Amino acid sequence: MKKRLYKSTRDRKLMGVCSGIADYFDMDPTVIRLCWVLFTLAGGSGIIAYIIAAIIMEDEPDYFDVN
Questions:
Q1: How far is CA 35 from CA 2, 49, 64, 67, in A?
Q2: Which of 9, 13, 59, 60 is the most interior residue, by most CB within 10 Å?
Q3: Is residue 41 part of a domain?
Q4: Cα–Cα dist 27/43, whole Å
Q5: What is the pLDDT of residues 46-64, one digit of tens each?
Q6: Beta-strand (E) ranges in the chain?
Q7: Distance of CA 7 to CAs 22, 41, 43, 51, 67, Å?
Q8: Residue 65 within any structural domain of the chain
Q9: Gap between the Cα atoms of 17 and 65, Å rounded
């Protein structure tokens, strides 16, 4: 199965963007959220990137492929 980037529907704080990115890279969502905060504090680019990601990323499918 091909790995895809989705917004998470399970661990959703704001829009599920950080959790979806963390799932894709097999990381802790808290680390990704802290990175977003750092990008936001370092010039505001984190807010724009988050909004764009929330618009572009699809929601995680409700089904799971069990093999």
A1: 26, 12, 29, 35
A2: 60
A3: yes
A4: 25
A5: 788 888 888 888 787 776 5
A6: 6-7, 58-59
A7: 10, 23, 25, 12, 23
A8: no
A9: 22
